[in-house]
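Title: Comparing notes on inverse folding

I've been comparing how different people in this forum approach sequence design from structure. To keep things fair, I'm posting one structure and asking everyone to reply with a full sequence. Here's the target:
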């Protein structure tokens, strides 16, 4: 089953990291990603730009497009991983690996991905004939 691992943290905290600390943390995260990729379990991964770059579409009687995130929160969604795991327990273990690689506070939300179509990881896709 595919799981989304949503990465939350304070943009201010992450933005205050030194270049050295940032590069160190990214190297640790890449090691986890490489392991998942070699196992054929890694799907799309994205690091999002800060919420100051966000645009929100509010629904209601009239649609309203505004700059910025939809809510003021202490933690922001900074990125996500899509991973193929046989169980929720395995997805939790993967999130723990990511958490160990990314020090400090924050949280990882783990959600099953609704399989609306036959999605396959890149290694499993067959080229069109």
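Reply #1:
Here's my take.
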């Amino acid at each position: 089953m595919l799981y989304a691992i949503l990465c939350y943290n304070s943009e201010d905290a992450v933005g205050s990291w030194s270049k050295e600390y940032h590069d160190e943390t990214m190297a640790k995260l890449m090691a986890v990603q490489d392991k998942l990729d070699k196992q054929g379990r890694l799907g799309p991964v994205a690091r999002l730009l800060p919420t100051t770059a966000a645009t929100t579409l509010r629904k209601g009687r009239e649609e309203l497009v505004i700059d910025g995130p939809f809510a003021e929160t202490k933690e922001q969604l900074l990125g996500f991983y899509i991973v193929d795991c046989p169980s929720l327990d395995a997805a939790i273990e993967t999130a723990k690996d990511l958490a160990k690689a990314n020090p400090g506070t924050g949280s990882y939300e783990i959600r099953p991905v609704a399989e609306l179509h036959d999605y396959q990881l890149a290694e499993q896709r067959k080229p069109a004939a």
